[in-house]
């Protein structure tokens, strides 16, 4: 199976937000009410000022 990287599009943002939030919470880096969580969850702002990428396999990106 090949994996391709691509820039996230606005339709990806809800999943990017959820995956990022879940990863930080499950790893125990922050609690859900930590102020930095709002920074991590602001995918729109991050995409305006940086590149947000997703990985695709078989034409679909990973959305567990």
Describe the structure.
This protein has one domain (3-58). The protein is built from 3 helices and 3 strands, in the order βαααββ. The chain has helices spanning 13-26, 35-41, 43-49; strands at residues 3-7, 53-57, 60-61. A 3-stranded antiparallel beta sheet has the order 1-2-3, with no helix packed on it. The chain is globular, with a radius of gyration of 13 Å.
Quick summary of this structure?
By secondary structure, the protein is an alpha+beta fold. The chain is built from 3 helices and 3 strands.
Entry keywords:
64 residues; alpha+beta; 3-stranded antiparallel beta sheet; 3 helices; 44% helix; globular
Strand content: 15-25%
Please give the largest β-sheet. 3 strands, antiparallel
Give helix and strand order, one letter per element, not per position. EHHHEE
- The radius of gyration computed from the alpha-carbon positions, rounded to a whole number of angstroms, is 13 Å
- Walk across the major sheet and give the strand order: 1-2-3
Number of domains: 1
Mean pLDDT: 90
- Separate helix tally: 3
* Helix-strand category: alpha+beta
Q: Give the tally of β-strands.
A: 3
Distance between the termini: 17 Å
- What general outline do the C-alpha atoms trace? globular
Uncertain runs are none
Helix content: 40-55%
């Amino acid at each position: 199976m090949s994996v391709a990287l691509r820039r996230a599009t606005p339709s990806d943002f809800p999943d990017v937000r959820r995956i990022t939030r879940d990863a930080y919470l499950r790893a125990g880096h922050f609690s859900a009410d930590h102020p930095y969580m709002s920074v991590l969850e602001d995918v729109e702002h991050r995409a305006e000022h940086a590149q947000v990428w997703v990985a695709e396999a078989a034409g679909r990106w990973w959305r567990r």
